[in-house]
Amino acid sequence: MTFLTTTTAAADPVGACTATRGAVVAVDFGAFDGDVVRGCDTTPTTGYELLHAAGFTTKGTGHDGDAFVCRIGHDAFRSGTQYPTPDADDCALTPPATAYWSYWTAAPGEDEWTYSRYGAMDRRLQDGDVDAWVYGGTDVGGTTGRPDFSPDDVRPDGGGTGTPGPSGGPTAAPGEVDTAAAVRWLKSRLTDDERVTDDSGTADLLLTTETAYALAATDGRGPALDKVTAYLTTQVGSYAYPFGTDQAPNATAAARLALLAEITGGDPRAVGGHDLVGDLTAHVCAAGPESGEPTPGCTAPGDFRNADYADGQALAVLALLRAGVTPPAATVDRLARLQCRDGGISGPLIRAEENCDADPAVTALTALVLEKAGGHADTVSKARAYLTRTQREDGAYLGYTGATGASVHATAHAAQALRALGDTGRADAAEAWLSRQQLDGGGFAFEEGGTDPAPYATTAAVLAGAHTSLVTLTARTTPPPTTAPPTSASPTGRPSTTPAPGKAPDLRKGVAYLTAPAQLVQGRYHAAGPGTARADFGLTIDGAYALAATGLDNAALRGIVDFLDRGGKDGEGRTVNDWTGVGGAHPVGGALGKTALLAEAVGRDPRSFGGHDLIAALADAVCAKPSTAPDRSCAAEGAYTYAPSVFAQSLAVMAQLRAGEKESARKPLAYLRGLQRADGAWPSLIPATGDADVDSTAIAAMALALAPADGPATGTATGTAADSGADPAVAKALKWIAAQQRPDGGFPGAAGTSVNSAALAVQGLSLDADAYADEIADARAFLAGQQNADGGFNVAKEGQRGSDLRASTQAVGGTTGVSFGTLTRSLTGTSPQPTPGPTGGTPDIVTPGDSAGAGGAADGGTAAAGGGGGALASTGTAVGLLAAVAALLVLAGWRTTVAARHRVATALATAAGTGTGATGTATWTAPDAGTGSRNARNEDDGTGTAPEGDAR
Predict the structure, then answer these.
(1) What is the pLDDT of residues 232-246, one digit of tens each?
(2) What is the mean predicted confidence (pLDDT) over 454-481?
(3) HEC letters along 21-71
C-alpha cells in the first residue's frame, strides 16, 4: 500500500508531527483506485479541522450540512477531485451504511483502529492522535470496514510507541508536596474530628476513608486517625452493605474498609462485626448479562459483585492480597482484561466488545495491584509504557481523553505507581508538578489551576508526596501531631460516583442549559455546530420534546414550535421543510414522523404544520416494495422512504398512530415488528445488521405500545405496557433492556456507558414502571451523576467531559419517563413568539394570534421564570398534574390514565426531591440524525454521530 504525504503549502508537513506533538490523518482513496494520503496538524483541535488543516477538502450533505462528510478530496490525488463524484452520490441525503466515509481513530500508542464514537466535529484531539477515513461500508459498531493499514503505518516515525530510554522524561523544575499542610487542611474538613460531610451535613464515607489513608501516610497511628477509623467502623453496614447485610457487599466500599483495617493493624475479617475478606471472596461473578440469567451487580465473569468500576475491582483484589488471601484467579484476570490497546486501563468495568478508554489514575492503581499479584508482567509493562508515554513535559497527566487541563488526582496516582515501579525520575517530576498546584491552605483542587480545594484530590496528592501507595501503606505508631488551628471550610469536591438512591437529575438546571442563548439561537433553534448559521432541525425538535416533557419553560417551547410551524428560516435560509423533504424528491420518513409527533404533542395540527400535511406525506412515504440500485429510497415493503434506522421507522409509526391512521400504519408497524430479534431486542439499522441496541429497542417498544398486540387496525392506542392488553413483544423488549443495565445504573451505547441510552431506557422501562421501578431509579441516579454544574450532561461516563447539547436533550426529556407516543403539552396561556428571518437580524415573521391548537391536553403546568404558563401557573405542580390527569381521562380512558398518572407522579416525586418540580404529563422523542459531524454510525449520544435515532 502506497502512502502519499501532503504537499499543500498551507498544511503542516507530516514530519512536523511526532508522537507527542500534533495529530495525523490518513484518507484511503483505494475505493477509487487511489492511494492513502496523509497529512498533519501541529496544533490539533477537532477531527474535522484536522482534515482541512492537512490539506483535504470536504463536502457535506444537503440534508445534514457540513456535519456529515459526504465527499473528500486532496490535491495529491487527481488534482483535488472530491470522491465519490456526483454521478455516484449526489450528497442530497445522508449516504447509506454500505457506501460512505467511515471515521476511525487511534490514541497515542494504540496499534489498532477504533470506530469513532464521535463525529469529526465533536472529537477533540490531543497530541499523538491519529485519524483515518475509509470509503465503503460498516455495520453499526464498526466491526467491518476497518482500514487495511495500521495506525503505526500512518505515524511519521512508524510508531515509536515503546517506552523511552532512561534519558527520556520530563524536564520540569523540582518540587515537593507539603504533606503536613495538606493533612492540616484535611483535618479542618472533618466534622467532629471524625467524618467528612457534604454541604447538607451528610457523612461522605468515601472521602472519610480517603482522609484516613492520608492521616495514616503522614501522622501514623494516633488520636486523629483512631477517631476517624472508629467512626468508620460504626458505618460498615450502611457503607459496605447498602443492599442489606445478608446481600453481596458493595465491593469497592468493602475493599476500602478492609484496606484501612490492614493499614492500621486491624483485622479485615472483623470490621464492625463483618468479615470483609470472606464476603468479598464469596461474591465473585460467575457470569455477566450475556448468560441470559439475572446477574445483579455483574458486568462480566470475574467481577467482584457491585464493584462497578475498575478501581473497585483493583482495590478488592488488593484487599485480599494484603489479607494474605490468594484472590480468585478470575478476578485478577478480569482486571488484566480491562487493558486498552494503548496500554492504559479502562475506568468502567467494560465488556470485551465495548469501547476501551484509558484512565490514567486507574491505570496506575491497576499496574501496582497486578505487579503485587504477579503473573501479569506483560500487562504491567504495557501499563507502565502508557504512563511513560502520556506524561507531559511538566510531569503532569490529563485526567481523561480530551481533557484540556491536567488532573491532580491522575497525576498523584501516576506518581505513586511510577515510584513503586522504579521510574523515580518521572515520579519526582509528577510530584514537582503537584507541588506547584498546592493551594495556600494546603489543599489541592481537582484540575490544573483550580482554586477550590477538594478532599479527594488532596488525599491522593498526600500519598504521592509521602512516597507511598495503598499497596504498601502502613500506619506507624506515633505521638499525636501538633496541628494548626482549622482554616475556614471550602466546598467539598469529589469526582462523580454512583449517586445516592433516589437521586435524579435537576430538571430545572437542565432546562436552563437547553434554553440558554448559547444553545438556543435567538430562542428558536439549535445550531448544527459552533460558529454555523445552519439549524440542526432534528436536534431542535429533540430540545422541544425535552421542554414539553418537563413543562418548565413553555414560552421557550412555544418559540421553537412557532419557528418551525410558521416557516422560520435559519441563517442559511432553510426551513424545517428542507430537512423533512416534504413535497420534494426525497421525503425523509423519520424526519416527517419526528416533526409530526412534535405537532401532535403540543396540540398543533400535523396535517397543516409548516404549511404541509405531514400525515399525508407519511402515508405517501410508505414503501410498496424494496427499491433497486442505484435507488436507495426503500429498504423493504413497509419501510419509509429514506429511513435507514429503527429509530426513524418507530418515529414515523408513532406519528401515524397518533393521527389515527391505523390502516396506513399497518404495514410499517408489521415491518417494525418483524425486525425484533428472538431475544427481544431491535437492531439499529435498516436493513438489520445483526446488532442489538438499547436505544432502538426502547423506541420500538414505545411504538408498539401504542397499538394492541393484534395490530393497529383494532383497539385503542394507549402507549403503556401495563394494561391487560399489553403486547408480548413490548414485554420481551423491556426484559431485554433491563438485562443490559450496568451496576452503576447506566446502559451500554456506542459511546460507552451512555447518557443517551440511559435516558431512553428510562422511557422504555416506564412503559411498565411498576415492574421496573428499581431499574428506573438506578438509571435516573446514573443520569444525575452525569449532570454538570451548568445543567448539561456528559455524552457518556467515559471519554470527553463537558456538557453536550444532544446528550442533554435526551437526558432532560428521558428522565421524566414519558413515552414519545403519549407526550402531551398544551401551549395554552403562552404568547405568540416572533420568528427570526434568515439573516438572524430583526425578526420578520410573527405568529398571528393565539394558535396553541385544539384537541391538546389542559394547561401543561408552570413555566420557568419569565415563561408565562397562564393564569394557573402560580398554583404550581399540583394544578399542572391535575390538569394533565383530567386531559388524560378525556383523551385516553381510565386505564391509560391510571398508568400514565402513576408514571407522572413518580417522575414528579423524584424531581421534587431534588428541587426540580417537573409538572404535567409528558414524554419526548428520540434522537434524530440531524447533524453534528457524524460519519460514525453508532448512536446519537449527543456526540453528533449518526444515531439509531437518526431520522435521516
Answers:
(1) 999 999 999 999 999
(2) 86
(3) ECEEEEEECHHHCCCEEEEEECCCCEHHHHHHHCCEEEECECCCECCCCCE
